[in-house]
Design goal:
This protein is α/β, with parallel strands linked by helices and about 300 residues long. It has helices at about 15-20, 35-40, 50-55, 65-75, 80-85, 100-110, 125-130, 140-150, 165-195, 200-205, 215-225, 235-250, 255-270, 280-290; strands spanning about 5, 25-30, 45, 60, 90, 115, 120, 130-140, 155-160. Strands 1, 2, 3, 4, 5, 6, 7, 8 and 9 form a nine-stranded mixed β-sheet that branches. The protein starts with a strand and ends in a 9-residue tail after the last helix.
């Protein structure tokens, strides 16, 4: 049975690790949050440092907030790369930019370590039920070695291309998801200000061309005023920052993403940045002086 190290037990990493345990893999975990580690240990995982994981596992999965944290566990005398055995596979499932993903692959190769960038989409609900969409960048041979591991955490798993392709696909995904939420928010606020029944409007339009997975996931939560994060605005703001950097490097204008990034900064200034990204609606509510709730106004 494959030995897997998992670093990063946050909103997504915790349930993903649990699904690996349920699939029967030998799982070791590491996180700065001792309670998160203890929770996984109670389910059968072992606690190990990144240094020991590099020596004692076959695959190390990193699920961290940003590239800075990924590099921090890779580098240094107690980092993964300095202690890795030849053939170790690093599966970075964090959402970072393609420049970092390619640089990680190049640096890892000097230590005879294989890498894949494999960010996910689906948020906490799909992390819990093991049906995440997983976009992978890297070599076909490496991908083939970890397919069973990915299948324990996801449903739609696609090798998009070489190193950096997975995270590029994730950036495109984040443009679509977040702008969809913003458009949805603008529409809900318009309807709320007009005084119509939002829930009935939702039922009327969800089966048409305006309907989407985003609409079905976020409208019920917005109506319940439930902004508990399945994916925080902080993470999505970081992703859109990566979108702008990558787009500008490629001379691709992204005016809508640029405007939404400023909306995220406004929400951060308003103390909302750790809300779910469905909380984007709060920006539009504030400027229109209306709240989206159930029933007629």
């Amino acid at each position: 049975m494959k030995r897997i190290g998992f670093i990063g037990l946050g909103i997504m990493g915790n349930p993903m690790s649990q699904n690996l345990l349920k699939a029967g893999f030998n799982v070791s975990v590491n996180d700065l949050n001792d309670k998160a580690v203890a929770k996984l240990a109670a389910l059968g995982a072992k606690e190990q440092t990144p240094e020991n994981m590099a020596k004692n596992t076959d695959i190390i999965i990193t699920m961290l907030p940003a590239a800075k944290q990924v590099w921090s566990v890779l580098n240094g005398p107690k980092g993964i790369l300095q202690n890795a055995h030849p053939g170790l596979i690093i599966l970075d499932m964090s959402s970072i930019g393609p420049t970092d993903a390619k640089a990680i692959a190049q640096e890892a190769a000097t230590h005879q370590v294989e890498t894949l960038d494999a960010p996910v989409s689906g948020g906490e609900p799909k992390a819990i039920d093991g049906t995440l969409s997983i976009m992978v960048g890297g070599k076909k041979e490496t991908f083939a070695k970890v397919t069973d591991v990915l299948q324990a955490m996801g449903h739609d798993i696609v090798l998009v291309g070489d190193h950096g392709s997975g995270v590029t696909a994730k950036l495109a995904n984040q443009i679509i998801v977040n702008l969809n939420i913003a458009a949805l928010s603008e529409a809900l606020v318009l309807a709320a200000k007009a005084g119509i029944d939002i829930e009935k409007m939702y039922q009327a339009i969800r089966g048409g061309l305006a309907g989407s997975a985003v609409m079905d996931a976020k409208v019920p939560l917005i109506l319940d005023r439930n902004f508990k994060p399945g994916g925080t605005m902080a993470i999505n703001m970081k992703d859109l920052t990566n979108v702008l950097q990558t787009a500008h490097d490629l001379d691709v204008p992204v005016p809508f993403s640029s405007q939404l990034l400023e909306i995220f900064h406004a929400l951060k200034a308003d103390g909302k940045i750790m809300d779910d990204h469905g909380g984007i609606v709060q920006y539009f509510e504030k400027i229109a002086n209306v709240t989206v709730t159930r029933g007629e106004k």
